[in-house]
Amino acid sequence: MANLRINNFFLINVIFIASCQSSQNFKMVTLEKNELHTIEIASNRIVQECYFMNAEKENKWRYQYSLNMLNEKNEVVSAFYPTNQGKQECLAHLKKVEKILKAESKVRLCVRDKLKKMIDDDSDPEFHDFGNLGKHESPYYALTFDTICNSKKCYSISDTWTQTCPDFKN
Q1: Which terminus of the chain has a lower count of CB atoms within 10 Å, N or C?
Q2: What are phi and psi of 53, to 5 degrees?
Q3: Nearest to 165 by CA among 18, 63, 32
């Protein structure tokens, strides 16, 4: 009977300690004057899109690649490719990043620009759908996407940005 009490006490403590441990799904480290960030994030907390902008004089170059990340507060942090592009180019970026996301449960990103909250009460907030994680608001101005890596491979939309962040290699 004493052994059973000791075992139950031990089991309850192990369950309690394990439940207090959190698997970190989003970790942002800011470097270089608040304008360069590395992000470690669970792959399921990222959604991508080729955002169509209805601009009249840009012909077919109306798409912008966007990568949206869900942080620890369930707020969306967006990173965009900085220039417009054609639909096929945008979809090609999306497919390459999707391969990296599917390969592992966590990835690392390198993004640029200051992370600033929007303080504009006149505009409607933008929401992004993260599937089973729900729809969440994007309260920040978008960052610039540089590089995404898993443990085996890195991808950058521009080869010149692959070496921007420390320990990011192509």
Answers
A1: N
A2: -105, 125
A3: 32
How far is 113 from 81, CA to CA, in rounded Å? 12
Q: Does 2 score more than 60 pLDDT?
A: no
**Amino acid letter for position 168:** F
Break the chain into its structural domains and give their ranges: 25-161
Confidence of residue 118 (pLDDT cuts 50, 70, 90): confident
Mean pLDDT computed over every residue of the chain? 81
Q: For every residue of 94-128, which 3-state class applies, written as one string?
A: HHHHHHHHHHCCEEEEEEECCCCECCCCCCCCEEE
Which of 23-37, 47-61, 65-79 has maximum average pLDDT?
65-79
Q: Fill in the amino acid letter for 30.
A: T
Q: Is 109:148 a contact under the CB 8 Å cutoff?
A: yes
